[in-house]
Amino acid sequence: MKTLLVTGGAGFIGANFVRYWLERYPGDRVINLDALTYAGNLENLKGVEANDNYRFVRGDICDASLLRTLFDEEVVDTVVNFAAESHVDRSITDPGAFVRTNIEGTFTLLEAAANAWRGDAPDCRFLHVSTDEVYGSLGPDDPPFTERTPYAPNSPYSASKAASDHLVRAWFHTYGLPVLTTNCSNNYGPYQFPEKLIPLVIMNALEDRPLPIYGDGKNVRDWLYVEDHCRGIDAVLAGGRAGETYNIGGCNEWTNIDIVARICRTLDELRPGGGPKEDLITYIKDRPGHDRRYAIDAGKLMRELDWAPLYQFEQGIVKTVQWYLEHPAWVEHARSGDYRNYYRQQYGHN
Ligand code: NAD
Ligand code: TDX
Predict the structure, then answer these.
(1) H or E element: which one contains 188?
(2) pLDDT at residue 115 in the model
(3) I want to staple 240 with a disulfide (CB 3.0 to 4.6 A). Which of 143, 169, 180, 267 is the partner?
(4) Is 132 part of the annotated catalytic residue set?
């Protein structure tokens, strides 16, 4: 039986991971530490609260004394660090929050985990969830990122994630803390906050509002269904070697415009009526410093730990669109309050 401390478990990937883990390993204990920022939503964990093996703690990964208490109360053998500021556009307007949570927060959590590991929790391992964006941007014919690709982050978000990855690496080399790092490509699926491209487009299209495409729409991302990311983290926790990093990705590159067109056609089929949703596509000013292309080579994870994505994109995107259609209350709440202000500031209209 394991005891996991999952940080950021009320966000998109963290909540999917908590659900995945408790379903897959019902005997394990999961402690979810989340500050409930604008991106954290306890509705993502509806149904999970009733599980006796689940504990929610509202708190900040920058809070050293809270972490000390938590590690005193629980014998944690696995830390999975999802907690982060995660949206590139917000990192451009408010980089300070990214430096604080992603860098200082990871540092504080590493210190707390290392203290526990030296003391009552000698089996404690630390898995840090990171991103493909730390590797920078690819040209059209470049090979995908491997674990040996040099870091070249371009946004305040990716720079802060890169810094956190370096801290994790240093805590292994200097202090011997058993760490693992995963660098994953773009995720999609249920419970994603609607500031991100896929849920934003689904929700706007449902209300016949403009579908904003930055620049020429030809930027490329490598999309992975969120459950496949959770299975990748599971594989790394089960068989990963301490100090190693593992790339996780879908071998599934799409231009933004093709993704948006695909979502439009899916909605035309699932929710017929009105004109074609593609008519709502609107090109707008590009994101500053917008990385052109990301692509992940997940060969190491596939070869060494026998992981492969289960979801074809064609299947995963229909499942995702259906989920948002079937959860109107979740959609309504996600888009209320501060989201309206953010949207107006980012896109210049309601
Ligand atoms: P998200 O923004 O949906 O969720 C982040 C969660 O962290 C929220 O619940 C928030 O309340 C919490 N949080 C933020 N600051 C905190 C703090 N100081 N202390 C405690 N909790 C805090 O993010 P996501 O998309 O689920 O991403 C999760 C992780 O995966 C991040 O580390 C991100 O960098 C990484 N990642 C995301 C993607 C993607 O496509 N979304 C891809 C690769 C890696
Ligand atoms: O309104 C939009 N219009 C648009 O054209 C938005 C929100 C995005 N885009 C473009 C920008 C990107 O090229 O779509 C692409 C995807 O954008 P996001 O969903 O914001 O994701 P991205 O910037 O690629 O970063 C994501 O993947 C890696 C996550 O947000 C990160 O947390 C993760 O690390």
Answers:
(1) strand 186-188
(2) 98
(3) 180
(4) yes
Mean pLDDT estimate for the chain: 98
CA-based R_g, the chain, Å: 20
Q: Within a 10 A sphere around the Cβ of 206, how many other Cβ atoms?
A: 16
Q: In what order do the strands lie in the sheet with 253-255?
A: 186-188, 220-225, 253-255
Q: What is the pLDDT of residues 75-102, one digit of tens each?
A: 999 999 999 999 999 999 999 999 999 9
The per-residue pLDDT for 273 is 87
Q: Is the CB of 88 under 6 A from ligand 1?
A: no
Question: What is the predicted pLDDT for the residue at 350?
Answer: 84
Angle at 209 between CA 348 and CA 284, to 5 degrees: 45
The sign of the torsion formed by the CA atoms of 60, 61, 63, 67 equals: positive
The alpha carbon of 290 and the centre of ligand 1 are apart by a number of angstroms equal to 20
Tell me, in angstroms, the distance from the centre of ligand 1 to residue 90's CA.
13
Q: What is the pLDDT of residue 337?
A: 82
Catalytic residue among 77, 132, 165, 234: 132
Q: How far is the CA of 116 from the centre of ligand 2 (A)?
A: 36
Task: Look up 343 and say whether it is catalytic.
Answer: no
Contact between residue 287 and residue 215 where contact means Cβ atoms under 8 Å apart: yes
- Which SS3 state, helix, strand or coil, does residue 100 take? helix
What pTM does this model have? Answer: 0.99
Return the C-alpha torsion angle 259, 338, 93, 63, nearest 10: -110
SS3 content of the chain, % helix, strand, coil (to 5): 45, 15, 35
Residues 6 or more apart whose CB falls under 8 angstroms from that of 313 comprise 223, 225, 250, 252, 254
Give the number of the atom of ligand 1 that is nearest the alpha carbon of residue 14: 26
**Domains contained in the chain, CATH given:** 3-259+264-347 (3.40.50.720)
